[in-house]
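Notebook entry, structure prediction.
Reason for the run: the old model in the group folder had no record of what sequence produced it. Starting over properly, with the input documented here first.
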Amino acid sequence: MAANDDPLKLARKALLDVMRDRIDREAPGVVRPFIDKLLGVRDRNMRALALVHRLRRYDAHLAYALLEHLVLNSARRVPAAQEVLLDLTTARPLIDAIGYRRVRQMYEIAAGRGRPSVARMLLSPESAAVRGVSVSFLKKQNQAMPDVSLGWRKAHAKGVDRLKIDRLLFDRNPQVVRLLLDNPRILERDVIRIAAMRPTNPDNLVEVFRHARWVRRYRVKVALACNPYCPIDIALACVPHLMLPQLVYVSTNGKIDGSVREAADQLMKARRQPAPQVEVPVHRVSDKGTIVRTVDGGDQVRLNLDEIANSLEQWMAGPEDEPATST
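New structure, fully documented this time:
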């Protein structure tokens, strides 16, 4: 008997296929309460760590179901999905946070199911932008204050002098920008100026994106998505938040990266079509965090992401997986 015909291996594969089919069917009703529960964590970085931990630990199909929910519902402008997708992008680069093997598996699922928007999130490089900046550009950190040291500029960034704050908006050092964003005297129009500036240091745009207060502002996300110096993964995370006029601008701007233009174009076409009607099982959240789904006949089926993940993990030992490393 050939190794591929081993009855135990065939049975294991068949069971995995059944469980993964269940994940595909139940994902809409199970993932949504999980995202709502995740938003109960106030700290943005903690939410990102919690989500990355699950994407790394869960079976590839379950991890893909989570990411697909975030991407597709962000495109439909579901606030909870949009916020968590922004949080996830702070774990940069995503391929390192989740692991190359898991990212590759999720990408293959996305490609096989014709989900380019999900695949694009997995492939986007961490710091690439259409237009790079030269070393000489970065060395001239602030042409408006050329004779002022970094230490003094950082001190002024925390200060009250409006004239100096205005000059520091052009600073190319991300440390200075980080302090400016925390300054209670800075205004939204100041942050938009930083996010829209070109040419600029891409690290300054990363600081704007990571700031929990300012990245919530719509015009700030527009400025990031439209800036050709913005890292591609950040621009892709901001595109689902844009309204139709801004999507048209991004999709037709030749200075913006092609993957960002493509994402905007697909999103623009999708919004012009009626939203598909998706039947979601009736569910409620029990006191223990388990999803209780009502099926025909009044039976109760209890579903939980962690329980499904644990069930899959029991069947993941085999030749398809990488051998465990000894410590």
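Summary: Residues 277-302, 317-327 have pLDDT under 50 and may be disordered.
The old model has been moved to the deprecated folder.
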